[in-house]
Amino acid sequence: MAQAASELRRVLDGDDVPAGLAEADLLEIYRRMVLLRTYDERSVVFHRQGRIGTYAIFWNHEAIQVGATYPLGDDDWIFPSYRESAIGLVRGMPPATILQWWRGHPSGWWSPADWNVASICVPIATHVPHAAGLAWGKKLRGEEAVAMAFFGDGATSEGAFHEGVNFAAVTQAPAVFVLNNNGWAISTPVEAQTRAAALADKGVGYGIPAVRVDGLDVLAVWEAANEAVERARAGAGPTLIEAVHYRAAPHATADDPSAYIDAARVEQERAHECVGRYEEFLRRAGHLNDEQVAAVRAEAEQQLRAGIAAAEAAPPPDPELLFSNAYVDPPPSYRNG
Fold first, then answer.
1. Which CATH class is domain 23-335?
2. Which of 40, 185, 207, 322, CA to CA, is 20 to 30 A from 15?
């Protein structure tokens, strides 16, 4: 019988590097975290400047996104929620493409097959069955690809989560479900959503392995994800990973968390944010110095400057796109606006 781990798995509190990661891997993980952090911070600024629309902030979630995806191969699939809108960056997707999604420009709708990254899912948990179905399909075809779905704690209160996880468990689909438990479903705390002692127990309920990790420890997330991916690829079925932390930024740019969040807890969490925590680990291990840090940050900032410039240089979308796939013959009034 599957059983969830009760304690949070941690790596960065010590000095050991998990087996399977070379120095080049450690530095690439850092580069990806800095790129995602830079994307998020710049996107908040772009929103305030009126250059992109309402934006879902993922500040301090970079350890989960990078750690979980790093074990994946090019043939594996990623199913993001809106909290992982920039996850395509780990696959080399241009920042301009993702920025255009937030700008409402059609060039922001990439073909999932080009990157093996599904479209950003805004409805809560509806992509969990999609990931389970794709994983099962890969299994039926005799392919070794794995599907990884990201979702928040609020998604575990949705029927689609239970249907998707149960389906993957029954079919032994090669899926990895990454549960980002940041303590809040917008303004609803976890304790108001469930009586479960741990959200990982919901995976146990469907007979699959479940593990709880420190969501701010990128190497702990990588270690759990690597084990889950290897297990899935070997035909042993899905795994649920619960990455636990506390949301240290607003839910989105339209949110005012002061009405419900613990401000003192937020400041405490921000003081131990995941990028800085990993940077300290690398410095302590002798893998990172000031010059490297400056170079990585400069590269990320340049990519974002180029990304917003490219997005804003794109021609306005054709208004006909609103109707071309909805009507055979659009009403005349739509053409006279």
1. alpha beta
2. 40
